[in-house]
Amino acid sequence: MTRVEQAYELAKKTRNNAYAKYSNFFVGSAISIKGVEKLYGGCNVENISFGATICAERNAILNAVAENGKIEIEFVVVCVDTNPVTVPCGMCLQVISEFCKADTPIYLGDLNGIQKTMKFNELLPAPFDTLD
What we know:
The chain has 132 residues and is an alpha+beta fold. 29% of the residues lie in helices and 23% in strands. The protein is built from 4 helices and 5 strands, in the order αββαβαββα. Strand 3, helix 3 and strand 4 (105-110) form a beta-alpha-beta unit. It is globular, with a radius of gyration of 14 Å.
């Protein structure tokens, strides 16, 4: 099993732990970071105050940062049960931008496997950044 397949399986598993009481939209994610063997999973955790909701992708990133400090994302996997598959939201993409390169792969999957691969800069070509 490849590392991407392992991350997909982790994302699919963590999706089952999502707390999606309000939207019933369950999302799992997993990230691989450079130089670290462990994969980091996350799921969405909703709140009645929707602004306090955390998405699966940010949850996975925050787990990795909490354990490792500064990280560089090697790839991201997202698992949903929609057809077509769903891309990370704008807020998640902005957070991902802090820790990845333009060509970092984002693997988009459903309950049957990875369905699409995109590069980060295809999803967010102009992230908010400091001006030089």
